[in-house]
Design a protein that fits this description.
GO molecular function: methyltransferase activity
Mean pLDDT: 95
Number of strands: 7
Helix content: 40-55%
Pfam families: Methyltransf_23
Radius of gyration: 19 Å
Distance between the termini: 60 Å
Number of domains: 1
CATH topology: Rossmann fold
CATH architecture: 3-Layer(aba) Sandwich
Protein name: S-adenosyl-L-methionine-dependent methyltransferase
InterPro entries: SAM-dependent_MTases_sf (IPR029063)
Bound molecules: S-adenosylmethionine
Oligomer: single chain
């Protein structure tokens, strides 16, 4: 009979698997974008307050901290507290906070840099625009907000397995609420929130055989195979299975692995950043 200890172990292993997938993805994004920070932050100024919303285990924060000599206050928030490192590393703090809820009053206009990557799908049925305007409210005058999100609109140069991956991703984003084109209006949301110097850049993210660095290429393949397994399970839970047969669904992660290792894959990542006047 399963005990509560078994359940805790299962949750811990599931979290470790997800954190490994996110760590692989982090290396892929860092390599393809050539930077961790797109907004023009002057990290040499003293005592900056830096927020990473949807931080998971704070890997982005820890990686930024490791490249900067000045001590700053690094704050990570997420709705899955089990992801937070225990104890928090020096200079970092972690807090339970959903992007769909009001942020603490004493955090308003208190950050020099608000960063959020690949978290807006977690808005669910909540308006994405409202989540973005809440983030804008956290930025000090002169400070920056930066959003990095996947863009599944437009034509794809990927092979058949990865085009199927993209179709399943679009379907999932539509079903959970954010909608597959959720990243396209981000620039206008930041403008409507009253921010200035609003900028946008699209990055080509390469995976597997399309990635020039062999070490990062492997991490990209591993990330996509794990993500394909999650997408397969989500699709199975949906009425109609997106017209995929049981056999197609079962073999889908393996088809993704073969195609990414032999041909590679590309995704578009949109970075949007803006300043509080
Ligand atoms: C795809 S992961 C990205 C993690 C990290 N930002 C990165 O780029 O590596 C999405 C993260 O957002 C968190 N998340 C999902 N919905 C959220 C919400 N409503 N509010 C805050 N965080 C959320 C998840 O728990 C997860 O850690």
């Amino acid at each position: 009979m399963a005990t509560s200890g078994d359940t805790e172990r299962y949750i811990m292993e599931a979290n470790e698997g997800e954190l490994q997938r996110l760590a692989n993805q982090h290396q892929v994004l860092k390599s393809a974008m050539g930077t961790l920070t797109v907004a023009p932050i002057d990290f040499s100024r003293p005592n900056l307050r830096i927020l990473d919303s949807g931080t998971a285990d704070g890997l982005w924060l820890r990686d930024v901290q490791a490249t900067i000599a000045q001590p700053h206050a690094y704050v990570g928030t997420d709705i899955v507290q089990a992801f937070f490192p225990q104890p928090a590393p020096p200079g970092l703090s972690f807090h339970n906070q959903s992007i769909t809820q009001d942020w603490p009053d004493d955090w308003q206009a208190s950050f020099d840099y608000v960063h959020q990557r690949l978290t807006l799908a977690g808005a669910g049925q909540h308006p994405v625009k409202q989540c973005v305007s809440r983030l804008a409210g956290l930025v000090k005058p002169g400070g920056w907000v930066e959003l990095v999100e996947a863009d599944f609109t437009g034509d794809s140069s990927n092979g058949p397995a990865m085009q199927q991956f993209e179709a399943m991703m679009r379907n999932m984003l539509d079903k959970v609420g954010a909608g597959y084109a959720y990243a396209t209006p981000l620039k206008s949301y930041l403008e409507d929130a009253g921010l200035v110097n609003v900028q946008e850049k699209s990055f080509d993210i390469t995976y597997g055989a399309a990635c020039p660095n062999a070490h990062v290429a492997k991490k990209g393949s591993a990330h996509l195979v794990t993500a394909a397994t999650g997408l397969r399970d989500f699709t199975k839970s949906q009425v109609g299975n997106m017209d995929m047969s049981d056999q197609e669904l079962e073999s889908f992660p393996d088809e993704v692995r073969k195609e990414v290792e032999s041909r590679g894959a590309h995704f578009k990542m949109l970075a949007v950043w803006a300043q509080k006047s």
